[in-house]
Automatic annotation (TrEMBL):
NCBIfam families: DGQHR, DNA_S_dndB. It comes from the Bacteria. It holds the Pfam family DndB. It comes from Thauera linaloolentis (strain DSM 12138 / JCM 21573 / CCUG 41526 / CIP 105981 / IAM 15112 / NBRC 102519 / 47Lol). This is DNA sulfur modification protein DndB. InterPro entries: DGQHR-contain_dom, DNA_S_mod_DndB. CDD domains: dndB (cd16412).
Length: 357
């Protein structure tokens, strides 16, 4: 009687919800060699996974190729649609070999984009094939259970806020710049929320790190020297000079005025104004490198009150609510640029003309 050919690899056996499962370390090369059941052609109700979003793959593989010394991938979760045999090693209960028939179907419950990206990266860097990734295997559990696993695995997978992602990102130069400006500034350190991407009504902060990141990136665009410390000092000097023109910011910092009251009453305490101040500041620093601080005094001539609907409705607000879309950022920037007597660029002129019509 012929023995059916099997794929054999070492695993650790575990127990979860009264079901056995296995954890293995697979080489990245194995991800390419092992056939994964392709569900893309099936209707949603017969699939155990969403269809592959191919647009995500180059981004993930690029991350791996750009960071070969410190990339990190979490474990893949895979179902094996077949009977398997676990053979404990001598004297062991949980360590052993898993024997899987060669014709078994492997179905990815979590990690299909990671696998596809790894395979794409190996095309360019085959030497990475000997590196490993953890794989968690569940057994012959059927479509309904696979679909439930997908729902359960993603039910509590909450994406971190953009601010927290920027705070923990040490590869993004613009994120590093914004963090350095905040950390080095006695003023902004206490009014920028480093974790949240939207502020609660009673928050004591005025801005989020994600908003400050956008503003810093626009401010330093075309002015960056490549020296992070020097660029951060330039940005910090500008932002602290801007802060001097908004007494309400100082009152929030000193606890004399609730941040919520300032945000409710004024445009200048929202992310759209911060980004607009960054865009306008970029032109100001380029055109007036020596007297830009004096020109900032004109910021106080702008009526920043949200009640000034004649100015802000259709610019920073739509229907009385702050709008962060690109057109509104540009229209808000135009108000600031006109006050500072610096020219609008061609795109800003186009948007202003359209707004006027």
């Amino acid at each position: 009687m012929e023995t059916q050919p099997t794929l054999t690899f070492p695993v650790i056996r575990g127990l979860q919800a009264r079901r056995e499962y296995y954890v293995a370390m697979w080489s990245l090369r194995m991800l390419r060699q092992i056939s994964i059941f392709d569900e893309d052609e099936l209707p949603p109700e017969l699939r155990a996974q969403r269809t592959l979003n191919k647009a995500r793959i180059p981004e993930i593989s690029g991350y791996m190729l750009d960071n070969p010394d410190d990339y990190v991938f979490s474990a893949l979760t895979v179902s094996i649609d077949s009977d398997v045999a676990f053979e404990p090693l001598p004297g062991q209960d949980k360590l052993g070999l898993l024997r899987v028939p060669m014709d078994a179907r492997f179905i990815i419950n979590d990690g299909q984009h990671r696998r596809a990206a790894i395979i794409e990266a190996l095309e360019q860097r085959p030497e990475l094939g000997h590196e490993t990734i953890a794989v968690v295997f569940f057994l012959d559990i059927g479509l309904e259970r696979c679909q439930q696993m997908f729902a359960d695995l993603n039910r509590h997978a909450i994406r971190p806020s953009r601010s927290l992602g920027l705070l923990y990102d040490h590869r993004n130069d613009k994120a590093r710049l914004a963090k350095l400006v905040v950390m080095k500034s006695d003023f902004f350190r206490d009014i920028v929320d480093m974790e949240k991407s939207s502020l609660a009504k009673r928050s004591r902060k005025l801005f989020t790190l994600s908003a400050f990141h956008n503003a810093c990136a626009d401010l330093i665009n075309g002015l960056a020297t490549g020296d992070l410390t020097e660029d951060a000092n330039t940005a910090r000097t500008y932002w602290e000079a801007v802060a001097e023109r908004f007494p309400a910011w100082r009152q929030v910092l000193e606890g004399r005025l609730p941040a919520s009251e300032v945000r409710e009453g004024y445009i200048h305490s929202h992310g759209i104004a911060l980004q607009a101040l960054g865009l306008a500041g970029n032109t100001l620093l380029k055109n007036h490198p020596k007297d830009w601080k004096k020109r900032l005094e004109s910021l106080q001539k702008i009526d920043w009150s949200r009640g000034n609907t004649k100015l802000w409705e259709g610019r920073a607000m739509i229907g009385g609510r702050i709008s962060k879309v690109t057109t509104n950022v540009i229209l808000t920037t135009n108000v600031i640029k006109k006050a500072l007597s610096v020219p609008l660029d061609s795109e800003q002129l186009r948007v202003e003309t359209a707004h006027g019509r």
